Structures are given as structure tokens and as C-alpha cells.
Amino acid sequence: MKIAKAWGRTAALAAAAATVLLGAAATTAHAQAWPNKPVTWIVPFAAGGPTDAMARDIADKVGRQIGQAIVIENAAGAGGTIGAGKAAKATPDGYTFLVGHMGYMGAAPSLYKKLSYDPVKDFDGVFRFPDTPLVLLVPKSSPYKTADALIAAAKASPGKINFGNAGVGSTSHLIAALFESRAGIQVTSISYKGAAPAMNDLVGGQVDAMFDQSNTALPQVQGGRISPIALTSLTPMPQQYPGVAPLADKALPGFEAATWYGLYAPKGVPKDVVAKLHQAYLKALADKDWTARMASQGIHLLPEAQYAPDALARHTAAEVAKWRKVAADAKIQID
Ligand code: MLT
């Protein structure tokens, strides 16, 4: 009887060991095999905006490292929440990711009563992108040459000044709402399916002002199509916007804002895929010409540790919590 039991135990142990080995082999096989086809990054805004521009640049560099094309899929609408909802439901197989940012991955749970996803529960962090401070922009023909002049005009005629934005709950909408709240003014928001279409109407003079991230604002400013009148960074950016003061300097002491971004996978993505993508990104960031070029656009590079998957996950959870208070204080509500 004892021998039978011993054999029984041995067989059970062998079966368990085989299961573990097969599982490990499958994971290793997945790791070795991944990526064996193009990878998709969903950008939930129209092409040509700051999120799209940042995503395409990073996707190009990371794609070269992993030896596989990274395809950008623009899925616009509702301030990025439509594309984020689509990504949350994607198969977590390492071939579909979301380029997220502070709007739909930070503020959205405080702004939308009915959100089809949870930024924390439905996603795994892969790596954080650098941040982008924003610029307060007006048409070239605008009479408002400074933030103080714009605020004074808005105070004199509540609701008259209109701000373009990339969609309800987008960065450009949120920062304008915080600006409105801090300045004690009332403006009219005009929403588009991304910053690019909003920018077109700013250039054309159909909107009076908008906040845009520096990486896409700069070429428009350098091309003489729009005018920068203030920065959301605490420090000036003399190379990019000579003579333009931070809002924090005078108009709105202490006002600071920057868009943060991150690459996310639907919850349950293989950990080895996350590690491979994170390492590919860090290898790409070792190219000092690339990081210098990003810095020249006003992009704010972060300490390397802040790019890590778990750092992005912690940051996302902290931002979701932070925006509950920020949205309540600024009375920003959407639905
Ligand atoms: C936003 O304003 O939230 C987005 O950055 C707009 C965009 O990237 O198109």
C-alpha cells in the first residue's frame, strides 16, 4: 500500500512539474515568438495632434528595437474615451496597446458618470512617455497679446471668448477649464475630434484661443500662423517661445500643467511582452540625438525610473484620485 501511495505522490508531483514546465515553455515560446506580426497602438484622437505626433515618434523608435512595425490606429471621439474603451476590450495578447494620457486615463473617471472602462482595473502599464507642457495660443490676428489681456476681455464679457479643444475631457479642455476656474472667468468651449482640427480653426481665427501641447504648437508658432501668449510650465522656454511668460509668473501665480502620457495594454498582457517593450523604449532613449530633438520641441524628459511599467501604474492610480478633487473644485463635469 505504501509503495502505491508513494508512486501516486510521485506521479502527482511529476504531473505538476510537467504543467509548470509546459506553462513556462509556452510563456518562453510566446516571449521568443513575440512579436511575430505588426503591433497596434491605438491613439484616441485624430492624426496630427500632439498625442498622435508623440505616439508616432516613439512607435518608430520602439518598432526598430523590437524588429516589428508598430501601426498607429487613430480611433477618435469623446475626448479619447472611445478609443480607450476599445483598447480595454482588446485581447491581451501583446498586439494591441493604448496610448493613454492624463485626460482619458486620469481625469475621465471624475468627469464621465458612464465610462466603459476603468483606467486602473482594465489596463497594465507598459511604459510612461515624456511629459509635454502646454502653450496658451491665439490666432495671429488676435487683439489679446498677453494672458492678462485675454483674462480681462473674458471678465468684461462672460462667455464671449471661445476656446477650442480636442474633445470633452481632453487635455486642452481640462487645462482650459482649470484656467477658467483659476482666472475666475467664463469662456465657451468648442470641441473637436482632436487638437489638429481644433488647431486648424485657431489658425483660421474661428476660435479665439486654445491650449496645445508644445510639440505641436511649436511648428505652428515658428511658421507664424498663431501666437503664443503664455506657458503652463513653471519655467520659461526661451529657446522655443522667447519672451513668453509662464502663467505662474504673473497672470495666475502657481498655475502649472503638463500632459502626461503612457503606453498601456489590456489587463492580463504577458509580462514578458511588457518587459520587452519597456527595455526597447529605454534602449531607444539612449539615442541622445533623439532625446535632444524631443527637448527642442519643449517635451519634458523624465528620470528613467518614472518610465517603468509599475511607475506608470502607480502614477495612473494617483492621477485618477487627484482628479476627483481637481474636477470637483473646478466644477468640471461632463455627463
Ligand atoms: C488633448 O488635447 O487631450 C489631446 O492631446 C489632443 C490630441 O492629442 O489631439
Question: How would you describe what is shown here?
Answer:
- The structure is a single chain.
- The chain has 335 residues and is of the alpha/beta class.
- The chain has 2 domains: 169 residues, 3-Layer(aba) Sandwich (D-Maltodextrin-Binding Protein, domain 2); 127 residues, Periplasmic binding protein-like II (D-Maltodextrin-Binding Protein, domain 2), CATH 3.40.190.10.
- 45% of the residues lie in helices and 17% in strands.
- The protein is built from 11 helices and 11 strands.
- The strands form 3 sheets. A 5-stranded mixed beta sheet has the order 2-1-3-11-4, with helices on both faces. Strands 5, 8, 9 and 10 form a 4-stranded antiparallel beta sheet that branches. Strands 6-7 form a two-stranded parallel ribbon.
- The chain is elongated and about 85 Å long.
- D-malate (MLT) binds next to α2, α6 and α7.
